[in-house]
Amino acid sequence: MANSNLIQRHPFHLVDTSPWPFVAGMSALSLTTGFVMYMQCYQGGFYVFSFGFISLLFTFFVWWRDIVREGTFQGHHTKAVQDGLTWGMILFIASEVMFFFGFFWAFYAACLSPTIEIGGIWPPPGVDVLNPWEVPFLNTLILLVSGASCTWADDAMICGDRQGVLYGLLATVSLGAVFTALQAVEYLDANFTISDGIYGSTFFLATGFHGFHVIVGTIFLAVCLARTYKGHFTPQQHFGFEAAAWYWHFVDVVWLFLFITIYIWGGWGAPVHA
Questions:
Q1: CATH number, domain with residue 140
Q2: Is residue 274 part of a domain?
Q3: How many CB atoms are located within 10 Å of the residue 94 CB?
Q4: Could you write out the DSSP letters of every residue in 59-116?
Q5: Considering the entire predicted model, what is its pTM?
Q6: Mind listing the pLDDT tens digit for each residue in 54-93?
Q7: pLDDT level of residue 1 (50, 70, 90 thresholds)
């Protein structure tokens, strides 16, 4: 390690030189460039996109592996460092709130003042909305139960109950996977697509991005499950799990707003897809 003979007189972690920020940036460039090429039907666009995607996944793995080593085995995540990580996660979730706020804004703008192009009514004619009391309501119950199991794991972590953490995380990860599967079934059953006007675009963008966040949160918690099994966490130092739990509760709250706004209120009085 660089400067290993120097005495550190501060509680902060000055990271060593790492290639991963540069590799991540180039991978993201390849990913976005390949996506644009693919959408514009340029030859080789799919391969450029695939290379960027695989490279980005690899970079995520090795970069976060290094962070786990720094915090778990090398002891670099002091109280001051954890405070910084805490504020970073808080600001990240705040940015996510603004991200979904844009989708809700678009939906409200479309349904509260429907334009003449869609007949001046909402939902637009020809759209059979999904029954909110079937798969959407079941998914709501699943996420609520998963939030409870995540809280169970969090409390068990604080109490030093390793077995309780494992059971709680296993239940949460399983419920997250079931939610994703049911969401996919719902999409296949819908009689409208993302290209079917303002209703289809706002519906699939809002619920689709939420589904993507559920997948990310499930992977996040699955990694915490593996790390708990390996004994990486202690009741005093487990910020990685705390961050995952905060993220999962955020996903739960966003779904409640989606369920009430888009599924129930946004489709009130419209024909229901059988």
A1: 1.20.120.80
A2: no
A3: 11
A4: HHHHHHHHHHIIIIIS----HHHHHHHHHHHHHHHHHHHHHHHHHHHHHHHHHHS--G
A5: 0.85
A6: 999 999 999 988 888 887 777 777 888 888 889 999 999 9
A7: very low
Taking Cα atoms as reference points, which of 137, 174, 86 lies closest to residue 267? 137
- Same domain? 19 vs 88: no
Instruction: Clarify whether residues 156 and 242 are in a common domain.
Output: yes
First to last CA, the chain: 64
Token representation of residue 36: 């644009």
Tokens of 54: 């695989």
pLDDT given for residue 244 in this prediction: 94
Could you tell me if residue 271 is inside a domain? no
- pLDDT above 60: residue 2: no
Nearest to 251 by CA among 191, 189, 188, 179: 179
Q: Give the range of the structural domain holding residue 230, as residue numbers without chain letter.
A: 78-265
Tell me how long the chain is: 274
